[in-house]
Amino acid sequence: xxxxxxTLQAMAxxxxxxxxxxxxxxxxxxxxxxVWIVDAYLIAFACLxxxxxxxxxRLGRKxxxxxxxxxxTAGSVLAAMAGQVPLLITGRxxxxxxxxxxxxxxxxxxxxxxxxxxxxxxxxTWTASxxxxxxxxxxxxGVVLEYLPWQGLFIVFGAAGALLAAITALRAPRTPTxxxxxxxxxxxxLAAAIIALLYGLIEGRxxxxxxxxxxxxxxxxxxxxxxxxxxxxxxxxxLLDPRVFALRPLRAGTLGVAVAFVGAFAMxxxxxxxxxxxxxxxxxxxxxxxxxxxxxxGLTSRASTKLVRRWGARPVVAVGFAALVAGLxxxxxxxxxxxxxxxILCPALAxxxxxxxxxxxxxxxxxxxxxxxxxxxxxxxxxxxxxGSALGVAAMGTALGANTAxxxxxxxxxxxxxxxxxxxxxxxxxxxxxxxxxWMD
Length: 441
Known about the structure:
Blueprint (H helix, E strand, L loop, with lengths): L1 H16 L1 H5 L7 H29 L1 H20 L4 H29 L5 H29 L3 H21 L12 H24 L4 H23 L13 H31 L4 H7 L1 H21 L1 H19 L8 H4 L1 H23 L6 H27 L10 H29 L2
Helix pairs in contact: 1-5, 1-6, 1-7, 3-4, 3-5, 3-8, 3-16, 4-5, 4-7, 5-6, 5-16, 6-11, 6-12, 6-15, 8-9, 8-16, 10-15, 10-16, 10-17, 12-13, 12-15, 13-15, 13-17, 16-17
């Protein structure tokens, strides 16, 4: 299960390294198209994670996991064959849909197969595999993109998905199923709300924040969310019962996970661009240079469980978010001539904070729901993460605007755009963190 989630996360991390290659490719994507290429995987991931969890509860986790890995492979192959931006985005959407089916099963299986006393350790190991995926994505992605065109990245991950599907067929256990309702109307409404929100964020810079289309997207997101709540309250078996957010641990965990990944993916979106533009690193060297930040997250996520047992969840989460905000704020001081040794401390501090906070937040989501709804709980946890990731990419992509690596902008212009973007993101994360800590038991 850790190999599966690590590979799915590695695809998301590696894609950020591909931005310079894609920007200079024959596809000639503009700044907004680059954001869509990166975010398409995350959007499909976010929209379908909760339905994927419900599907796993109903049809069986092993079969859904294998199906998801096969879709991930097919989407990667389609992206590798793409000769136009729309086809590349389509391939990314298919791969993201496969990841959405597969990922809830990974955590759901662990929660069902491990005894209660070992579940915190299992969640911490699962969280650490996200960090391992970040290392894998950065290092392998950097090496692949250094020696192969961008299509090679999708071929490598497609092959990894096919191999994991075969291993899963041989090794993953079968678990009992239950007649869980799928709630197609709820799935459609939830996906539509997420897409409307992200569409407005991604298109806002190019179309104008006061344009009718962008404002209409935000209004549609709010209206569809309201419709989902009203429909969910009336349905006997809603996809995600709005009432569960009355549970403080689940509410705190969902917001906390989403906000943590807003900060994480805002950093991931610019790291490779900054190192290649400001320091002249090759993509392979940039990938290796970013490995320490995932190591920092892996170490603190492993220590988090022991700290929670000693001090309680709330202090650990508070310290984790303090480190995340400090790391994001430190980014606003980075300039074109900042040495690598000082630069890497910013994302390392931020990721170390995320590693501390995620295990108790994810564990709080899972513990708030009964065991037979493990798939839905894992879906909520994953959806929060992927919505946060997509928001982070959209926010930083908007802040950079035309100052991407592919536009020929100077290192000073790129770092200046980064600074202003990180100041806003650090403030938003800090305000949300106050709510998260307040809601925790």
